[in-house]
# Entry
Amino acid sequence: MLLYPLMIVAIVVLFGLVLGSFVNALVWRLHEQDMLHGKKTKTAAKRRAALSITKGRSMCPHCGHELAAKDLVPLFSWLYLRGKCRYCQTPISRQYPIVEAATAALFAWSYLAWPYGLHGVGLFQLMCWLLMLVGFVALAVYDLRWFTLPDRIVLPLTVLGLVLVAVSAVWVQRFTALWQPLVAAAIIFGLFYVLYQASGGKWIGGGDVKLAGVLGLLAATPAKAFLVIFVASLLGTLGSLPALVKGKRGLGMHIPFGPYLLLGTVLTVLYGTQLINWYQSLLVG
# Structure
């Protein structure tokens, strides 16, 4: 009986590795496309075609050599090649295996900890959640590297989040399953928008404001919306402490808040009910 669950986990991990590889390609291509924005030369047009998400072939980001299938096996190709391009011997960033492994770990973690069941609407929600995680990892990498959250990732996630909420509400035939996620989205979006306007974008970025609606939809309830904000703020504070203690950056340092928001959302989706119940038990006790 143990073999079957282990096989499912193995399949989930495999999908995570493959989609983690896709995330690496997606992030690099989107950034390279942004670098070509406004350029109208024939060379730029040719470059855009090569960088197409749907039609472009995988290539080395350093020498531009088209990669063979044996170069694209998630995680294992990087290990086999000892972190270097097969063709130009230029070191390949550790980002590639880390992102692939992290995506696989998130997939397995979500499957094992999924709180809404693995049948019926729960299974549908898990499938949508795994797709969301692909976008989450891409946004986290992009924000960590270039301090921005591209609309071309945030907007599809918003659409997927709305579809998830609408289908789930119809499936369970409960109006609360529709209005509570919308209120949760309004709470996070509204708070972030006020902070953005009040600070002129210094306290929180415009990308975080756009992402807020998606996170609220996934939080699903007003209480969990506040939990996302609390957990993300706590993680952001803890994450910035080492740099402050070492004196490498001042209090005005720019911190990419997106990854903390995303991780806070993951923790809330998977463990939000338990965390809220635990907190309420402390108050009662």
About this structure: The chain has a mean pLDDT of 91.
